[in-house]
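Task: sequence design from structure.
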């Protein structure tokens, strides 16, 4: 029996039994993978309120406290005050509708169903889409687009965003058993869809975590032929070309590792901190960074040129420009304003330190 200077508490928000390891989510939203025998020992020597008995060695308790697995009783109230940070936004899918959607989407993680689906959807695509017409449309796809194209793009972004998050949430539901609601929030003035699958960190199987992270992009790709069909019947080949271009942009920005999107977390999960220091990983990261900056610079210059060409050279009124040009000018302008604001805010905060 040991005499402790203060009582210690073993409390957690959530646990997941991974066989030989039990994973817990602490009051500070930290994740730990504890060998099952140690977890069982902690449970055995903890009361209903979580207070640990003095039957355990003080050195052992001290080590667990330093790691953040257990807390001092005096720390609990302080921790609770800063607990519960959630993603703010409007929830689109939850409860029964979410359960139905997750069960349906989970089916496509089964290879026996996925392969026949892909064969069927590719067959329909080759039958419907005229390759020759598509090739003739590509050079002029971004010229003279009206508000019908703008409406199509906004509907596509909304629908594909929901599908992307359902991909993450359905694999999370399959491997964890927990339903993660789908919602939309705003990053400054831009809509951003979300599904809170942070508790995937409770899983010990690296492959399962990677599948959850990649599922968003994967589901966007496999459902793209179905998603584009109504727009194809509405607007023809130009819809197919533009939406394929939009899909390529979505995939690129989701998978680049230098933005805190899926690619960033995939990269961190695939390679340990030691591996990420190797030259090949450093080179890959920098390559994506250069490509990303290059692409963004190209879009900004192209947008500026179109504005100059439309308004100055051709004399078109600003609001009489093609709808897509106005839309792109608005987005680029907002990105520049937001980026400048964040940069100045950071400089100001650094000056105060």
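Answer:
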């Amino acid at each position: 029996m040991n005499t402790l200077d203060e009582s210690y508490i073993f409390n957690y928000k959530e646990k997941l039994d991974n066989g030989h390891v039990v994973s817990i989510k602490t009051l500070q939203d930290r994740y730990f993978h504890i060998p099952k025998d140690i977890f069982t020992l902690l449970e055995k020597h903890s009361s209903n309120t979580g207070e640990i008995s003095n039957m355990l060695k003080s050195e052992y308790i001290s080590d667990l406290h330093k790691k953040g697995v257990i807390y001092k009783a005096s720390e609990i109230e302080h921790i609770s005050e800063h607990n519960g940070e959630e993603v703010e936004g409007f929830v689109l899918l939850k409860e029964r509708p979410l359960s139905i959607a997750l069960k349906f989407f989970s089916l496509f993680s089964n290879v026996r169903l996925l392969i026949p689906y892909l064969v069927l959807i590719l067959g329909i695509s080759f039958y419907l889409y005229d390759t020759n017409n598509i090739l003739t449309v590509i050079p002029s796809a971004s010229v003279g687009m009206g508000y019908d194209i703008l409406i199509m793009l906004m509907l596509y972004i909304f629908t594909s965003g929901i599908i992307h998050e359902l991909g993450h949430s359905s694999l999370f539901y399959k491997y964890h058993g927990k339903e993660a609601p789908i919602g939309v929030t705003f990053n400054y003035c831009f809509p951003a869809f979300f599904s809170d699958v942070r508790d995937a960190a409770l899983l010990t199987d690296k492959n399962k975590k990677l599948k959850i992270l990649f599922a968003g992009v994967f589901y966007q790709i496999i459902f793209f032929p179905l998603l584009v069909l109504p727009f194809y019947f509405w607007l023809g080949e130009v819809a197919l070309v533009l939406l394929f271009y939009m899909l390529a942009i979505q995939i690129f920005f989701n998978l680049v590792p230098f933005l805190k999107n899926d690619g960033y977390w995939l990269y961190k999960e695939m390679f340990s901190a030691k591996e990420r220091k190797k030259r090949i990983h450093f080179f890959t990261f920098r390559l994506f960074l250069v490509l990303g900056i290059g692409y963004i610079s190209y879009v900004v210059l192209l947008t500026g040129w179109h504005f100059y060409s439309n308004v100055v050279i051709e004399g078109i009124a600003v609001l009489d420009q093609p709808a897509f040009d106005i839309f792109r000018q608005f987005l680029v302008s907002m990105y520049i304003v937001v980026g400048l604001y964040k940069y100045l805010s950071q400089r100001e905060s650094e000056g105060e330190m």
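The beta strands are 8-9, 14-17, 21-25, 31-35, 71-72, 90-93, 182-187, 190-195.
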